[in-house]
Automatic annotation (TrEMBL):
Transmembrane segments: none annotated. Pfam families: Acetyltransf_CG. It comes from Pseudonocardia yunnanensis. Residues 1-102, 7-93 form the N-acetyltransferase domain. The keyword Membrane does not apply. The keyword Metal-binding does not apply. This is GNAT family N-acetyltransferase. Its EC number is 2.3.1.-. Coiled coil: none annotated. It is an enzyme of class 2 (transferase). Keywords: Acyltransferase, Transferase. GO terms for molecular function: acyltransferase activity.
Length: 102
């Protein structure tokens, strides 16, 4: 197995993670007004238990940071991942944190 690859499939408004050339999962987002809202994250059952969800979210959040975007984690998986990795909490505007349970 090769190293998973994450890419921003902007035409589909989602980040995708690929393993050995196969789509293993994705994180759907909505862009607007200097923000990226993560709506839904999904990993194919065939790739479950390999930590791909975390790799996908980390890459997506790193891309948001690089682009200077505020993050709105509406997706429970993304929100939970940020809760476990507090070094990414600064991406979520303070005013939004209490609304989404952070």
């Amino acid at each position: 197995m090769t190293e998973p690859q994450v890419l921003d499939a902007a035409e589909s408004s989602r980040f995708e993670i690929h393993v050995d050339g196969k789509l293993a999962g994705f994180a759907v987002y909505r862009l607007g007004h200097g923000r990226i809202s993560f709506i839904h994250t999904e990993i194919d059952d065939a790739f479950a238990g390999q930590g791909l969800g975390g790799k996908l979210v980390r890459a997506a959040l790193d891309a948001a940071r690089t682009r200077g975007l505020a993050v709105i984690p509406l997706c429970p998986f993304v929100r939970g991942w940020i809760q476990k990795h507090e070094d990414y909490l600064d991406l979520v505007p303070e005013a939004e944190r209490s609304h989404i349970g952070l």
